[in-house]
Amino acid sequence: MGRCLGPVCRQCRREGMKLFLKGLRCETAKCPIEKQSRNKVPGMHNWRRGRNTDYGVRLREKQKVKRYYGVLEKQFRIYFDQATKAVNTGEALLCILERRLDNVVYKMNFTDSRRDARQLINHGHIYVNGTRVDVASFLVKIGDKVTIGKGENTQKMIKAKIEAIAGSPTQNWIEVNSATPEGTVVAFPSREDVQIPVEEHLIVEFCSK
After folding, report:
1. Rounded to whole angstroms, how far apart are CA atoms 79 and 201?
2. Count H helices, E strands: the chain?
3. Among 40, 64, 163, 167, which is least packed by CB within 10 angstroms?
4. Residue 4: what pLDDT?
């Protein structure tokens, strides 16, 4: 599985906004975006950067969405090709990304970041409809039931995470039982369920060339 191994806080600084790649740490004063001295584009020559071109604006929008969901270029292009078959390509692309299993586990509040959710999935702790799934890019469907492995340590770890982020809202397309813990996909995500500000038409314009 391809994944980004670089410092993730640099990605937030490059996009100029919080992408919540480090979970609860992003809510504290330790986040570089909160620090005036570090809330700028990474690199020693950031003061030389000029005005963005139209190409640059579209590129940044694509990179922002890729980094937010933790997707690399090849996988992103596959999702885009799938989305082009829909009437509204931009909304379809975002809904596909929302249906990724790592995003669903994160939205169920089983972890405090998508990176932790991917690790949980890759280690075989997540089950979909009773079958273990160790692929973070697995796309859930309506009616899919996501549960945690029966191991005592796994159950303790997940329940501790749920308590730590108690009060975080879940979305209408997911029903969660924190006591079990388990969740069920009751609908497909809509455009309103995307929690990051994004202009998807710019991504479509960029990827269509």
Report:
1. 15
2. 8, 5
3. 167
4. 64
Domain presence at residue 126:
yes
| Dihedral of alpha carbons 209, 100, 162, 156, sign | negative
Task: Provide the domain limits for residue 135.
Answer: 100-188
**CB count in 10 Å sphere of residue 100:** 25
Within a domain: residue 118?
yes
Task: Band the pLDDT of 44: cuts 50, 70, 90.
Answer: low
Residue 130's domain is classified under what CATH number? 3.10.290.10
| pLDDT band for position 40 (cuts 50, 70, 90) | low
> Using CA atoms, how far apart are residues 126 and 63, in angstroms rounded to an integer?
28
Q: Considering only CA atoms, which of 98, 118, 153 is closest in space to residue 5?
A: 118
pLDDT tens digit sequence for 137-170: 999 999 999 999 888 888 888 888 778 776 666 7
What pTM value is reported for the model?
Answer: 0.83
Q: How far apart are CA 88 and CA 85, in angstroms?
A: 9
